[in-house]
Design a protein that fits this description.
By secondary structure, the protein is an all-alpha fold. The protein is built from six helices and no strands. Helix 1 (2-20) packs parallel to helix 3 (61-73), helix 1 runs antiparallel to helix 5 (98-126) and helix 2 (23-46) runs antiparallel to helix 6 (132-160). The protein has helices at residues 2-20, 23-46, 61-73, 76-85, 98-126, 132-160.
Length: 161
């Protein structure tokens, strides 16, 4: 979640405002994000991952923490959410600045993801690790969902411009 919190700061510091004020940039990012989701979803569907049943990665908690910060902070899907989605929920005429609005939205997103990932991790550890076939099915459903969301995003951008 530290990586997402850093993204929130970067986007709120100015990158998000640039995107919010540029409809063409927002359209381009949404289109690229939709295409990426379709590609990533198709890859996930075609090559579903399954738990290996092994323990946590070897290394200190610090190295695991920094690896997680890097994964979330450099995650293209996270970047797309912060740059293409959050600016759409801002109001340039509100009493709060666009940067403050993006900051609050980003922190709400980060808190929501923290709760979701905690629940998902507990579920995977207890249920899916013992049932590889179920894990493959979940991976495929996730891939199909990403493809559907990506197609909807691209179609919306093509139709609405």
């Amino acid at each position: 979640m530290i990586g997402y919190a850093v993204l929130t700061g970067v986007v709120a510091a100015g990158v998000g405002v640039l995107v919010a004020e540029s409809p063409s940039m927002l359209t381009g990012l949404s289109f690229v994000g939709g295409v990426y989701l379709v590609w990533h979803g198709a890859q996930t569907f075609a090559h579903p991952s399954t738990p290996t049943g092994g323990n946590l990665p070897v290394g200190s908690w610090r190295s695991t923490l920094w690896r997680g910060v890097g994964v979330s902070g450099l995650n293209p899907k996270g970047l797309l959410i912060f740059l293409a989605l959050l600016p759409q929920f801002t109001n340039q005429h509100a009493s709060w600045s666009v940067a403050a609005q993006i900051g609050v939205l980003g922190l709400v997103f980060t808190a929501t993801v923290a709760v979701f990932y905690s629940c998902l991790g507990a579920f995977v550890r207890t249920v899916l690790a013992a049932q590889p076939a179920a894990a493959r099915t979940i991976s495929r459903l996730s891939g199909a969902a990403m493809v559907a969301i990506g197609i909807a995003l691209v179609a919306e951008r093509l139709i609405c411009g």
